[in-house]
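haha ok so turns out i had the wrong file open the whole time. this is the CORRECT one, sorry everyone. sequence first:
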Amino acid sequence: MNKSRGLSERTSDIVLVAITAVVLIIVAYPLYYVLIASVSDPYDVYAGKTFLFPSGFTLDGYAAVFQDPNIVSGFLNSVKYTLIGTVFSVTMLYITAYPMAQRDLPGRKFFSIFFLITMYFGGGLVPTYLVVKSTGLVGSMWSLFLPGGVAVGNMIIVRNYFQNSVPKDLIEAAQIDGCSKMGIFLRIVIPLSKPILAVMAVFSMVAYWNDWFTALIYLGGKGSPLPLVMRNILIKSSASASQAATISGGYAELNKLTELLKFCSMIVAAVPMLVVYPFVQKYFEKGFMAGAVKG
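then structure:
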């Protein structure tokens, strides 16, 4: 009986490992493919010759990307916007979610409905732009943060974490000892919520790092982040390739470079987040599951 049970558990472990390996390959291969395609001959890529290893190795795409003088400034701008935006967003989540986690909060039901409505209904791009313009934020980096200061979905996750994972007995003991509500929040709630803090920080960092459309609308070309700089490089290279079509022998090479730039820009924009993620990965699953809705 025990032998049969042990064999069954071992078989199930093997099946789970196999399924996990397949899922890992499915998820990781597209990124790996983009990486090897960024250093391969584009014609070999589209001919299907690039599968596991680079074909026709070349670094022309990366050379073209880093020759643009706006790359460094765009990278620094993205770092600045990501850091400021992440701190701002996480702060807003905390000061919003913690009061909403208190069941004795006056008007708690009203505020809950108010936040939920914003998840399903919005004014749209033009009304939002007019509001941002009327407040004088157009051209300012704060236009990237203030209009979407609170992500309601994330706020609900953080609220659930506070309700389910912060011991009420500990808070009551602190109250009995004379600790103020602000003291409880700073000395107890925040130290106990590091896992969900890491999750929300990752969510915010990825969102701000990849955001180019908001900067395109509100910044007007000033202080462009890296994704917007990459987009402009691709547009310029595509335009140059189109113009080169009228020149004998010029179109092929420019079209080849344009295709390389597509892959290289994806890698350049993705690498910083791939470097940061392993440092917070250990908190990610714990915090996300603790903040999930429990029945």
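DSSP finds 13 helices and no strands in the chain.
again sry for the mixup
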